[in-house]
Design a protein that fits this description.
mainly alpha, single chain, globular, about 150 residues, two-stranded antiparallel ribbon, Serine Threonine Protein Phosphatase 5, Tetratricopeptide repeat, about 55% helix
């Protein structure tokens, strides 16, 4: 989904851009200020907003709010199949996987006492690799082949 830079979806695009840059606190601020407009937005924009809002909350460690917004996006897609494009659906699925990893992190397979230094076990969906940097972040973030990556805590 390509959101116009000046239409009603500009606030979604701005938040998505900040999210894609790893600027989660700023993305959260944009989404919070924009939330009143979501009720008047097209269903496709509401679903995209909810997916990004949920993913942003995952990145910030606010799992109850993440679950709420991911559930909103999922419910929109469930009741109106096709509202999310395949790439957006993949992004939402990646966000749910990241949420599941945060709620119940995988059990380590490394024996006790072994060096287990890892930058982070927190997973959030991020833009797919190999997409040109000049591509708008939302398009990159919703590209096929999306693979969640670690973020610093």
């Amino acid at each position: 989904m390509l959101l116009s830079a000046c239409g009603s979806g500009h606030y979604i695009q701005r938040g998505a851009d900040l999210y894609g840059e790893g600027r989660y606190v700023e993305a959260d601020e944009v989404f919070a200020r924009s939330e009143p407009r979501v009720a008047r937005a097209a269903l496709e924009q509401r679903a995209a907003y909810a997916a990004y809002r949920g993913a942003t909350f995952i990145a910030l460690g606010d799992l109850p709010h993440a679950q709420h917004w991911l559930s909103v996006a999922t419910e929109i897609e469930r009741t109106r199949p096709g509202t999310l494009h395949a790439e957006e659906r993949a992004f939402l699925d990646g966000a749910w996987r990241a949420y599941a990893n945060r709620v119940a992190p995988p059990t380590p397979t490394t024996p006790p006492g072994a060096n287990t230094a890892i930058a982070s076990s927190s997973q959030v969906p991020v833009p797919a690799a190999g997409v040109p940097a000049s591509t708008p972040v939302q398009q990159r973030a919703l590209s096929p082949g999306l693979v969640p990556q670690s973020i610093p805590q």
